[in-house]
Amino acid sequence: MDTIIEPFRIKVVEPIRMSTRDEREACIREAQFNLFHLHADDVLIDLLTDSGTGAMSGEQWAGIMRGDESYAGSPSYDRFRDQMRAMTGFDGILPTHQGRASERILFELLGGDGLVVPNNAHFDTTRANVEHSGARAVDLRIPEAADPTDRHPFKGNMDVAALERLIDEVGADRIPVVMCTVTNNSGGGQPVSLANLRAIREVCDRHGLRFFLDACRFAENAWFIKPREPGQSERSVREIVREMFDLADGATISAKKDGIVHIGGVLLLRDPELLHRASDALILTEGYVTYGGLAGRDLEAMAQGFEEVLHEDYLAYRIRSIAYLGERLLGHGVPILEPPGGHAIYIDAAAFCPRIPAEKFPGQALAVGLYRLAGIRACEIGSVMFGGEGHAAPPMELVRLAIPRRVYTQSHIDYVVEACAELHATRSELRGLRIVEAPQVLRHFSARFVED
Fold this sequence. Notes:
By secondary structure, this protein is an alpha/beta fold.
């Protein structure tokens, strides 16, 4: 059957305030054309991020009530630790309040002036934490990743030959860790193959380098591997996930994605000495090692969420519903990054707004237009997020429609399709923007714009 059926029933609902075009015009101007500055009550469909915006299950809410708030040695930590150990095989398991806290601790310990950190593609906070340490973040995408219409099944892969060249150029002693982001968020939510992860592992072993995963969406990545990679179709997602983690020396995880919780993160480490140093840093800035800045109830919700995300009926629905959105947009002539990725659809803003040059931020202009028209909040991933002084122009100008987990129904998604199609038909009316105020780091969160 073709109908996408959600593998859950809706038990609790919250209202959406329906707004008018005039109201939205006033809101976006008050927000100075930055969608992060909008009040959530003024948004009809919120696709800004899938991070921490999902709906928790009845079992997760039961865990919230069961949570033990002992400062040290909480049984809630034991349940979280046991779930992570069974899923990943790691013994060094540190909870943090979210993924960027794991990144901060990792690069506080491994970063530094003159060092180089390669990745298939760093996302915003990862890059910021690398650069804050004084190190240089280097993206090593495969060539197919630069073509929005290329349907390579694993466009998230790292260019392993480029990794070898980088090692030869800067020397292995200047590379404290090699990262790989699964799925590749800034590259369109595209998956990374097991073969690619194995190849990265082999290069790291040969040069004596650490290999870490940015594993925010590890389960979605594993689901793509199952049908697309030769020899994997008969394996369970749980088995594929375990092999992914077995190939790594460590991982940073935002549990707000594939943990399906509202707050939480994880830092996984194999090296006992690095684990000891990370534990000290965690205690200094986050909390004791058995709570890491979280409440016991959060640990319970994380433990259950990391179990539920491995359920294959959920993953089948999740990935198919994203593909449905992408296919319908393509059917209306809306250019997207192909093939549809895991957690989001990425509109190709450069192709959508060919009259608006990169320096006038076509992605931001598109996102503003979508909110004005339909009250949909999306996220620019292009020259606002990754541009600026000292940064090379990003390879693509994208607008991400990130779908919260277990929140919106198919009729909501159909509304998004209709809005994008209508905006595309009137795209010549979109106006570029210029920045009038912005910080040096992570400027997309707080930049202020005026229309050009």
